Amino acid sequence: MSALPTSAVIGVIGAGAMGAGIAQVAAQAGHSVVLHDNQPGAAKAGIDNIRRQLEKRVAKGKMSQGDVDNIIARLQPAGAIDALADSRLVIEAIVENLEIKRQVFAQLEALCSPDTLLASNTSSLSITSIAANLEHPERMAGMHFFNPAPIMKLVEVVSGLATTSEVAETLYATANAWGKVAVHASSTPGFIVNRVARPFYAEGLRLLQEGASDAATIDALLRQAGGFRMGPFELMDLIGHDVNYAVTRSVFDAYYGDTRFEPSLVQQALVEAGRLGRKSGQGFFDYAGENAAKPQPKFAAPANAELPTLVVQGDPGVIAPLLERTQEAGLDVVRRESLQPDGTPRLYLGDLVLALSDGRCAAERAVNEGLNALVLFDLCLDYRSASAIALAASHTTSPEARQLATAFFQRLGIDVTWLTDTPGLVVLRSVAMLANEAADAVLQGVCSAKDGDLAMQAGVNYPRGPLAWADSLGLPFVHRTLTHLQQSYGEQRYRSSFLLRRNALSEESFHE
After folding, report:
1. Model-level pTM?
2. Digit-coded pLDDT (tens) for 84-111
3. Contacts of 364 (CB under 8 A, 6+ apart)
4. Backbone CA torsion sign across 333, 337, 340, 345
5. What positions carry a catalytic annotation?
6. 481-502, pLDDT tens digit by residue?
7. Could you give the angle at which helices 427-443 and 466-473 cross, rounded to 10 degrees?
């Protein structure tokens, strides 16, 4: 299907930040836009705010005044919903209340022509449910923009139970024509992004609650080792804990209390205390006043230890870039064949064993493998460029051995933070759980693997799509990590998606 032509009038209901942003996107793409809000003067105020935002770009030399004037000329404020009658597409962006949305779409169905497409920008309500009382629910779908709409690239085109493929494809093509990255999703709780992203927050919150480390350090590890633009705690502070917690509760309730989506008591306490993040001046971090200082991550002090030759046993696989970095740092590296049944690589510094985490805590792995001195290190997006890493030691590892591990990574220019002995550490467990949730979304027909990855990169700026990341790590390794996490905690929360497990066993990747 082709996109709506620029001659098509676009109607937008709701002149708040999201509605005005969507109206701006459509006007910038060349459409005439009617912006309606039932609050007197709100639509005009929304357009005035669009002008102010665009003129800031003029002041920075990123736009001409003529372009701004043309965009604003295509925006028409409307206090009455009747002004939307000639729209070819109407996008609703009002309060997240099912009954109010149903009333609005019932009005639109009676008002607009039969070929008018109807779309909701809802982020949490069922498209199927919103359209249920319409005479022609097949012409309604979701167009979920991300805030701020003029900047964020992603649009989730959400099909309800009755939505025709022609409607979904037209909206998909239209979003792309507007300069967005469109993905298809089915109307299930959280759609793609708000569902798949839950583990990013949930695992950080659990690590904090268990005392594995502090919020600033966990954030730093996910940025500096995992390559994420923001850590979970600074991101929740930015979003607002009232909003983030409400989304988690919504998805949790919609999935009948599935423990994968279980809300955190830590975040609940912040909401109850009114510590909502940046908007209230305090969340996990303090934002009150000009002199508010964000806590710094807790990295280990410089360690003085003479480093022996690094002995590599087995195929290094994903940690090969770490060995290249070791050699570039001037350290001797010797390679040997693996003695492990599964070929898992080990690094030896004298009697100290260094190993990539596999979802077990260090104590369990040391007991299982008969090791006296074991230090586990975390996953990194790119071991060549990572500037921080998490380590955890078994209970039998001496302070001297811990110092040796610290000195080794510091010699490579990597800051070290020591966690309590925690299964999966920080980056590995987060990535494994993100991939697991994305796999389940694909299994349940919410999206394709391609669109799942694209949504997480375009919608929340992940450094890699979770499924592509899992493919690169090897699905058997990711499945084994999840199995170990489930065994460690004894919880269904960490169960492997059947699709991930099946692909791991059959050696099929998500992206052929």
Report:
1. 0.94
2. 999 999 999 999 999 999 999 999 999 9
3. 423, 488
4. positive
5. 123, 144, 156, 194
6. 999 999 999 999 999 999 999 9
7. 110
